[in-house]
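Notes to self after the call with IL:
- keep both proteins in one doc
- input above output, always
- annotate only the second one for now

Protein 1:
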Amino acid sequence: MAISQRLVDPSPEIRVPISYSWQDSYRAALLETDWAKMVELVQAAESEIHKRRLQLSKDQNGTQEEREAVVNALNGLRVLRMDASAWRERQNLSRI
């Protein structure tokens, strides 16, 4: 096989990174390192994602990929919320 043949991607489709309107707030919650701020950012991200999820259920403009990304993001935020709650409990116990 010639070198030029090995360098060509056989896939006919071009993949472009997709960005959704709710991703910035989701990313902010994921990247926050201050647990006290994280709770607020998780709530804001959940709110934006739920609004988009409602839009997706009303109209058919969204893609299956976005629907899956919404579910995955909400699952990730649920884990962050539980972690932040556990942190808050530890903080309250250490004050006693």
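Protein 2 (the one to annotate):
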Amino acid sequence: MMRLTLHHVGCLVENIPAALAAYPEACFAAGASEPVLVRSQKVRVCFLPSGNGTFIEFVEPEKDNVSLIRMLRRGVTYYHAGYFCRDLEECVRDFLAAGARELTRFASEAFEGRQCVFIVTPQRQMIELIQAG
């Protein structure tokens, strides 16, 4: 039984409305969510449904989010996959045992205050683990 469910692919953008304009409404059945400020991460995010319960998460860094702005300037756009976890702590332990390292933990306004953890795999892929509701 899978303990993780893909929720979204995170995409860095300079401006959420401009990014959404590049995704034709005719290709996506439902519109994007309203942007939400995730204060602890210094980003605004919104979700565009992409089918089968998955989303594209548009991540717009606040002006003082130096690390994400630096990534954007280097041309990094798609930068993480977000997964719902039935047991967040168990998933974190499993990733750490497999050689990943934990970057940050936070409660996200985008997920009703649920706990989230960013980790980086030994191959340098970033994954967001989100406590399932």
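Annotation: The chain has three helices and eight strands. The mean pLDDT is 94.
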